[in-house]
Specification:
7 helices; alpha/beta; seven-stranded mixed sheet; two-stranded antiparallel ribbon
């Protein structure tokens, strides 16, 4: 009796969750993307790298090399969205330069396993960046995202900006849970910058509906429900 009751309640919870996700899709095909979503500008360099990354005949070595380069561009674009303050420095020639520096610490949280493909680019752009890990997997029966592992940098709620990195974001289910985890640990929405190589409009629509104050940086607009092919090619399995 108790087992049947628990199973029934889990089924009802799963149905409510799927219905809530479905309701977040309303208007995605007619409404414009949020102004807080930035899609990487398609320069000849970006188009050339995308061609190699998405070509199924590209070797594993070339795929990893060009994806690392692309990851650097995405993280650099994400850094344009963090909070800065003015700073005056002295140049080697003895002149004063009016520049900028981050207001506080910038850390990163990697959504495993796809987000680990960004680590090479992250180390090149922010060598001393403190990182955390999240492992979110979909339940094979219900399709709901489940949090299996969590390790965040100490005092992350005091950091001025937190980058949330994942290789792909299609339906947005995992991204919603990842952002919610950060919010639950005290990170304000406007300090979260999500960076992803590829995302569908449904996922972006859902994420910005629930968390309107976060910033999202996307390399490409892709299919709304796409297989996670990037991590398979990057990690060769």
């Amino acid at each position: 009796m108790v087992t049947q009751y628990i199973e029934r309640k889990l089924v009802e919870k799963s149905a409510r969750h799927r219905a809530a996700l479905k309701s977040l899709e309303l208007g995605y095909d007619v409404e414009p993307l949020s102004y807080r979503v930035t899609v990487l500008k398609e320069t000849p360099q970006v188009i050339g790298m995308n061609t190699l990354i998405q070509d199924m005949d590209t070797s594993s070595e070339d795929f990893i090399f060009y994806f690392d380069r692309f990851a650097c561009l995405l993280i650099e674009q994400a850094l344009n969205k963090v909070h800065f303050k003015e700073l005056t420095v002295e140049t080697p020639a003895g002149h004063k330069y009016q520049g900028l520096t981050p207001k506080g610490e910038v850390s990163a949280v990697i959504v495993l396993r796809g987000g680990a493909a960004f680590e090479g680019g992250l180390k090149r752009v922010i060598p001393d960046c403190r990182t955390g890990r999240l492992l979110i997997q979909s339940n094979v029966r219900t399709g709901e995202p489940e949090l299996h592992y969590l390790k965040l940098p100490k005092d992350i709620e005091t950091h001025d900006s937190v980058l949330l990195l994942d290789a792909q974001m299609s339906s947005g289910g995992s991204a919603l849970m990842a952002v919610q985890v950060l919010v639950d640990h005290g990170v304000p929405q406007d300090r979260i910058v999500v960076a992803t190589y590829s995302s569908g409009k449904v996922g972006l629509h859902r994420l910005t509906k629930v968390f309107p104050d976060i910033t999202i940086v996307v390399g490409n607009l892709g299919s709304d429900f796409e297989d996670r092919w990037v991590e398979k090619r990057y990690f060769r399995c």
